[in-house]
Amino acid sequence: MRADLERLGRYDEHRVRRRLRDSFSPQHTSVITIDGELAGCVTVRPAEDRLGAEGRLWLEHFYLAPHCQGRGWGSAVLRSVLARTDAQGMSVALNVLQGSAARRLYERHGFVVEAQDPVDVFMTRLPERRGEAVSGGPAH
User: Fold this and answer.
1) What's the rounded Cα separation, in Å, for the pair 24 and 3?
2) Per-residue model confidence as pLDDT tens digits over 72-98
3) Which of 2, 3, 59, 102 could pair covalently with 94 via S-S, beta carbons 3.0-4.6 A apart?
């Protein structure tokens, strides 16, 4: 994330730490381990306070150690998270930095752009229903 923030001219170590500290939600955060080693974390929490959207979840603080990226682990974690949110019938919202490679990951898993500004892209994904694709159409 640092590289993306630096590319956008928005990296500030203190602001990054404050954002994590102020929004950290331990009861909604899962630690990601691979072969018994800490590999990252992901938070999925109710989004009533975000984007004014009741009945949706907010996915944030999805971090995967650099040596674990590009190996399918992010997709595996995201599939697991989305299986749970689909079972709850909940849509999921997130934001990703403009130009971040993570956007492609989210798009592959059915997220679509809801809004954007010069720094952030806000995306949402409707719940997938049994036998239907993410878009709500028939599964292939």
Assistant:
1) 22
2) 999 999 999 999 999 999 999 999 988
3) 59
Q: What is the pTM of this model?
A: 0.76
Q: What is the pLDDT of residues 18-55, one digit of tens each?
A: 776 677 788 999 999 999 999 999 999 998 654 455 67
Residue 5 half-sphere exposure, CB side, CA atoms within 13 Å? Answer: 9
Using the Cα atoms of residue 103, residue 7, residue 2 and residue 28 in order, give the sign of their dihedral.
negative
Q: What is the DSSP string of 8-58?
A: TT---HHHHHHHHHHH--GGGEEEEEETTEEEEEEEEEE-TTSTT-TTEEE
